[in-house]
Design a protein that fits this description.
Layout (H helix, E strand, L loop, with lengths): L1 H5 L3 H35 L7 H47 L3 H4 L1 H45 L1 H45 L3 H10 L2 H53 L5 H44 L19 E9 L9 E9 L3 E6 L5 H8 L7 E6 L2 E2 L5 H7 E5 L9 H6 L9 H10 L5 H4 L21 H14 L4 E5 L7 H14 L4 E6 L10 E6 L2 E6 L1 H7 L2 H9 L6
Parallel strand pairs: 3-8, 3-9, 6-7, 7-8
Antiparallel strand pairs: 1-2, 1-4, 4-5, 9-10
Bound molecules: adenosine-5'-diphosphate (ADP).
Pfam family, one: ABC_membrane
Organism: Ruminiclostridium papyrosolvens DSM 2782
Membrane topology: Multi-pass membrane protein
């Protein structure tokens, strides 16, 4: 457990613990010095060095040491936290890059991944807080208890008996709180989403135009208050009970102080001891108990986080993710879908039902069908992002998911409908698919030129290829939708893969412009295989083979002419869309 949390930061942990042992000692020392200051002043009746002055100077020195220790603790905790953040962050980000893509599609595992990524900073602060609080409190408590036992041992017993219920109910309340937290986390995620919906750059134009801010704002506050109420209710009752026991302790302490008045009056107890004992008891009930409740809460947060973290770390990885290996052989003879059935883990229905087809190394394939017929799912399986529930997706006889990532990226490049608009330089935007050639501007210009002379795009940017794109960066240049699309296409072409996959990247432009883009793409990708998904059929004439999908089944296969002759679903779709292409 300790190794799991601390890794190679044990030295910081030990120094912080040491500082807090010293900090802990200052508390009973304070009480002791107060007793001495009062008693020497009262007993000797005169002030001076060797009497109460010495103790007062000691007291001053102790305050200075306390401040120094607190500051060092703060500084070291920051360094400790930063180091933990980098260590853990690296592991967490590497793991999230390796886990199978399907977990991002499943609600439960996505929630776990989200909780880990968004909660690990808070838990790191938790670890540093616990390290210093536990050491400090343990030492000061023992010190204070020792002082009390030396003077009036029965007070120690009374405090101990009234302490256990406080700790017990704190543990119960905090256990409940975190279990409920996991249950109500979906509300938190939803609230985050809704807040982003009215604040993000993508949606802000529609928010202004349709003025739906109030509606979403209402939904957001409803969902968030469900989350908050859940959090509050989960620990309210046991927390009140713990609070009631703290009050009981205050009452007990008050009674004890009344009881001490008698020996004080009789001269059986010095004023110094009386004041010091009272301070020790108030300290214990007031500060320590609340601190201990906080520690219990933080330890429990860590317990739940560790559980999540274990689940996260145990998520299956792509067998070949991030592996090295021979990536030179980028050619393939054929890719084959062999009786592929697929069902998303969240649902019981198959979205692909016995899909069979193959792609040879210079073939152009079009997948067509209505929305929801399973086209994108086929693409995710083709790229090895998802694995078939039954059947196989094979590249030259090898399951695609077993192919090393370095090699897989040489085989496939892809442009999705919701292609990414990376807020980094144009050079990086294009070269992300093949970073070894990030300085090959000649190739970038060649590719951009092949896409309707888009090299102009670079000339118009103030720093050429090094211009930062997007509005998220200060001084960044935003591009038009079409220009972003060009950049995404250029990225796919730059990877020099042997098969280009296009999942409706042109859905945002008009049908005639779409045909033009496909024309350019296909001529730029000469001698390569290409798979393109579309529900608009103007570009399908370019394909060697067209597959029509209907509810997860391939119902037609052939060239455009063959399918038109067949007069089935494809022909019907084509005839409906014909007028889009009439000039
Ligand atoms: P298309 O690309 O043809 O529009 P998809 O492959 O995106 O179709 O979707 C096929 C079916 O799978 C649809 O019924 C859709 O609702 C369902 N589906 C898609 N993604 C998921 C997911 N992550 N979880 C559950 N069902 C999904």
């Amino acid at each position: 457990m300790i190794n799991f949390f601390l890794g190679n930061t044990k030295k910081y942990f030990l120094i912080i613990a040491l500082i807090n042992v010293l900090s802990g000692l200052t508390v009973p020392l304070n009480i002791f010095l107060i007793q001495r200051i009062i008693d020497t002043a009262v007993v000797s009746g005169k002030s001076g060095f060797g009497n109460d002055f010495t103790y007062i100077l000691f007291y001053l020195g102790l305050q200075i040491v306390t401040v120094l220790l607190a500051q060092s603790d703060k500084l070291l905790r920051t360094i400790f936290g930063n180091t933990l953040e980098i260590n853990w962050g690296k592991d967490i980000l590497e793991k999230s890059a390796k886990v199978q893509y399907k977990y991002f599609e499943q609600t439960k595992s996505y929630e776990t991944i989200h909780r880990i990524l968004s909660g690990f900073k808070e838990n790191i602060t938790g670890i540093t807080d616990i390290t210093s609080s536990v050491t400090k409190i343990t030492i000061s408590m023992f010190g204070v208890f020792y002082f009390i036992m030396q003077t009036e041992w029965w007070i120690f017993i009374a405090l101990l008996i009234t302490t256990f219920p406080v700790w017990l109910f704190s543990i119960i309340s905090t256990l409940r709180e975190r279990d409920t937290y996991t249950e109500i986390y979906p509300y938190f995620l939803r609230a985050n989403y809704l807040s982003k919906m009215i604040n993000s750059r993508e949606s802000i134009k529609e928010v202004r135009l349709y003025n739906f801010f109030k509606h979403i704002n209402k939904l957001w506050s409803e969902v968030l208050s469900k989350f908050q109420r859940g959090q509050l209710l989960s620990n309210l009752k046991p927390r009140y009970i713990a609070g009631a026991f703290i009050f009981l302790q205050y009452f007990v302490v008050t009674v004890i102080i009344f009881m001490l008045v008698y020996p004080l009056r009789k001269g059986l107890m010095t004023i110094g001891v009386f004041v010091a004992l009272a301070q020790a008891m108030w300290n214990y009930v007031g500060n320590f108990q609340y601190e201990i409740i906080n520690i219990i809460q933080k330890i429990n947060h860590l317990r739940v986080f560790a559980k999540d973290y274990k689940t996260f770390m145990a998520l299956d990885e792509n067998s070949s993710a991030l592996c090295g290996g021979d990536a030179n052989n980028i050619n393939f003879t054929s890719i084959e879908f062999k009786d592929v059935w697929f069902r998303y883990d969240d649902s019981s229905e198959y979205v692909l039902k016995g899909v069979n087809f193959s792609i040879s190394n210079n073939e152009l394939i079009a997948l067509v069908g209505l929305n929801g017929s399973g086209k994108t799912t086929i693409i995710k399986l083709l790229l090895g992002l998802l694995h078939p529930t039954k059947g196989d997706v094979l590249v030259d006889g090898m399951p695609v998911s077993d192919i090393q990532v370095t090699k897989r990226k040489k085989i496939f490049s892809v442009i999705f409908q919701d292609f990414a608009k990376y807020n980094i330089s144009l050079r990086e935007n294009i070269a992300l698919s093949n970073l070894d050639f990030i300085n090959n501007e000649k190739e970038m210009i060649r590719i951009l030129n092949s896409l309707t002379n888009q090299a102009e795009l670079v000339q118009n940017l103030k720093d050429g290829f090094d211009t930062s794109l997007g509005k998220d960066i200060d001084g960044g240049t935003d591009l038009s939708g079409g220009q972003w699309q060009t950049v995404a296409i250029a990225r796919a072409l730059f990877s020099d893969s042997s098969c280009i996959v296009m999942d409706e990247p042109t859905a945002a432009i008009d049908p005639i412009a779409e045909v033009e883009v496909y024309n350019q793409l296909i001529s730029a990708a000469k001698n390569k295989a290409a798979v393109f998904v579309t529900h608009r059929l103007g570009s399908t004439r370019l394909a060697h083979t067209i597959y029509t999908l209907d509810k997860g089944i391939i119902v037609e296969k052939g060239s455009h002419e063959e399918l038109m002759e067949r007069n089935g679903i494809y022909a019907e779709m084509f005839n409906t869309q014909k007028r889009w292409y009439e000039k």
